[in-house]
Amino acid sequence: MIPDFSKAANAHRRKKSGGGSNSGAALAQNISVEAVTSSEPRYCFCRNVAYGEMVGCDNDNCPYEWFHLECLGLSEPPPDNEPWFCPECRGKT
Q1: What CA–CA distance (Å, rounded) separates 18 from 90?
Q2: What is the pLDDT of residues 66-78, one digit of tens each?
Q3: Alpha carbon of 15 to those of 27, 68, 69: distances in Å?
């Protein structure tokens, strides 16, 4: 089951879906055609379903909302104690 990635008030949006020891890249390769063609919400610049560790943009109007760390070139999420904006929203806030 995919976690609810809806925007939560007063919560810095850091979520982790999936689990186990697989990396996000490995999980991405293992997503079945059925999962990709389902009605699951799409996130990130890659417009894929939620998997692995993800970070949420703190702009409530971000068109992507959530991002896979590897799509951002990050090995770990940004610090929880400061707002984080995706590359597209950084210039808009």
Answers
A1: 28
A2: 999 999 999 999 9
A3: 16, 10, 11
